[in-house]
Amino acid sequence: MHELSIAMSIIDLAEEEIEKRGATHVSAVHLKLGLLSGVAKDALLSSYGLACEGTALAGSSLLIEEVPIVAYCDTCDAPRPVSPIEWFVCPECHAPISRVLQGKELQVVGMEIQ
Question: Considering its fold, how many domains does the chain have in total?
Answer without folding.
Answer: 1
